[in-house]
Amino acid sequence: MIVKIHFKKSNKTIEVFPGNTLLSVARDHHIFIPSPCGGNARCGGCRIRVLQGKDLEDISAEEYLKLSDEQIEKGFRLACSYVIKEDIEVDI
Ligand code: FES
């Protein structure tokens, strides 16, 4: 199965296999997402917003530590923790 990720600000859509984090997929496709802690879910610097396809069921413990309940409700996630499972649109 292939899923599509649409990067709204970049106006770029990529097709990938599910299972990798958004940060690693973005890096592979030369789309910059700040990652001060190197993708180790410690800094919160890779915060992005999922505009479509947000899944509130698989939020990691690290995301709960770095994001407020309100941010999570609005679709914010940590790109280094967010594993791609389905078509999404992100505000990058
Ligand atoms: S890169 Fe630091 S929390 Fe994701």
From TrEMBL:
Entry keyword set: FAD, Flavoprotein
Gene Ontology molecular-function annotations: iron-sulfur cluster binding
Domain 2Fe-2S ferredoxin-type: 1-92
UniProt xrefs under SUPFAM superfamilies: 2Fe-2S ferredoxin-like
InterPro entries reported for this sequence: 2Fe-2S_ferredoxin-like_sf (IPR036010), 2Fe-2S_ferredoxin-type (IPR001041), Beta-grasp_dom_sf (IPR012675)
The keyword Transmembrane is assigned to this record: no
Record-given protein name: 2Fe-2S iron-sulfur cluster binding domain-containing protein
